[in-house]
Design brief:
Length: about 375
């Protein structure tokens, strides 16, 4: 295990974030880095600490943890076919766009979607490849997004973007919504209650939620905007992701939380499923989550592969060492777990500028931590 130099870490991160704040590229943000359970960096920039942030796709690892929790309870298997729960998945077709831009059936599915495919982006559900997923997602009406039941009823009758299990392409919300709904069916509980009872409460976490309290809304970060010259902030209202109603516990993007709370969740993953007195997952479940199943780019030589709800660094051709795993959010949040060096790192911001998995601010954060080891 290499040791982080706390003074160097402070300089690297602080110098970078202050510059990004001064130039408008980053607004309010909070960063928390721990090594071997000790907090080695925790600072807010442009705001007070303990703000609530819209986590967007950093919801996905939490949903994956819930699915793995149900696997542990014997109610599910990762190899279960999704058609066990939804009839429409037993007779699916891959779609294509015709000359008018309409989605039409192209070919019958060769292999049914499994639960594992939902979590490693190989299902083809509403994946934005070839325009098939985008067109069908655009066709969703507000009544289709009332809750996980209405969402999965819609998905139950769509055409897929590609043959399941034969390639990988990001499913922003659809596949993880199906996974979340399956957890509701197998547990008999609303997904938000399941997350609270079986993931958050055992870890002592109260500041990760689908439905913020009045006090938590009072701490919710405003959205940062930057047009290259001017910075401004907007209150996006009482919604967590893209205007979705709070009755829709979006398994791919519906959570809000603090840097401290998400750091506790990351520490649980680092410690193979438990933390202090709280046991959430078995070590085998965490191993399954961080196993690299398929390369994100399709090139097996690339460093970044999909695990279950996370990206995994599968070789040393990357800033972070092999074995690191984590994910990002559309509004700029980012985290990873480094098992080799016993590090967890969380970066929270809410911004319409430089967000998502390709955010430059996230890449710089990785560099600043990676360059702070003795």
């Amino acid at each position: 295990m290499r040791i982080l130099d706390e003074k160097l870490l402070y300089k690297n991160i602080s110098d970078r974030q202050r510059h990004l704040l001064e130039t408008g590229r980053v607004g309010r943000c909070e960063i928390l880095v721990r090594q071997d359970g000790k907090t080695v960096f925790h600072e807010s920039f442009g705001c007070k600490t303990n703000l609530m942030y819209r986590l967007a796709s950093m919801t996905k690892p939490v949903t994956a943890a819930a699915v793995l929790s149900e696997v542990q309870k014997g109610r599910l298997s990762l190899e279960d076919k999704v058609s066990r729960f939804f009839d429409g998945f037993a007779d699916q077709y891959v779609g294509a766009l015709d000359e008018n831009g309409s989605v039409i059936p192209k070919e019958k599915v060769r292999n049914e979607i499994t639960i594992r495919m939902l979590l490693n982006h190989t299902s083809g559900i509403l994946s934005d490849i070839g325009g098939v997923g985008e067109a069908q997602e655009r066709a969703m009406k507000p009544e289709d997004r009332e809750n996980l039941t209405t969402v999965t009823n819609y998905i139950n009758h769509i055409l897929l973007s590609f043959q399941p299990g034969e390639t990988a392409f990001y499913s922003a919300t659809g596949a993880f919504d199906v996974a979340a709904r399956i957890v509701e069916l197998t547990s008999g509980m609303p997904f938000n209650e399941y997350i609270d009872q079986f993931i958050m409460r055992p870890l002592g976490i109260s500041d990760i939620t689908f439905v913020p309290s009045e006090e938590q809304w009072g701490r919710m970060s405003q959205m940062h905007y930057f047009d290259g010259q001017k910075v401004w902030y907007e209150d996006t209202g009482r919604t967590i992701f893209e205007g979705f109603p709070l009755t829709y516990f979006c398994g791919g993007a519906g959570l809000a939380g603090t840097a401290e709370a998400y750091s506790v969740f990351a520490e649980m993953l680092l410690n193979e499923g438990s933390l202090r007195s709280g046991a959430v997952l078995e070590p085998e479940s965490v191993r399954r989550m961080k196993t690299p199943y398929i390369p994100i780019s399709g090139d097996r030589n690339d460093a970044q592969w999909w695990g279950l709800g996370v990206r995994v660094i599968a070789n040393d051709r990357y800033t972070l060492p092999k074995g690191c795993f984590g994910w990002s959010g559309a509004y700029g949040s980012h985290f990873w777990v480094d098992p080799e060096n016993r590090v967890t790192a969380v970066y929270m911001k809410n911004s319409r500028f430089d967000g998502g998995s390709g955010a430059q601010s996230s890449a710089w954060f990785e560099e600043d931590v990676a360059h702070s080891f003795r």
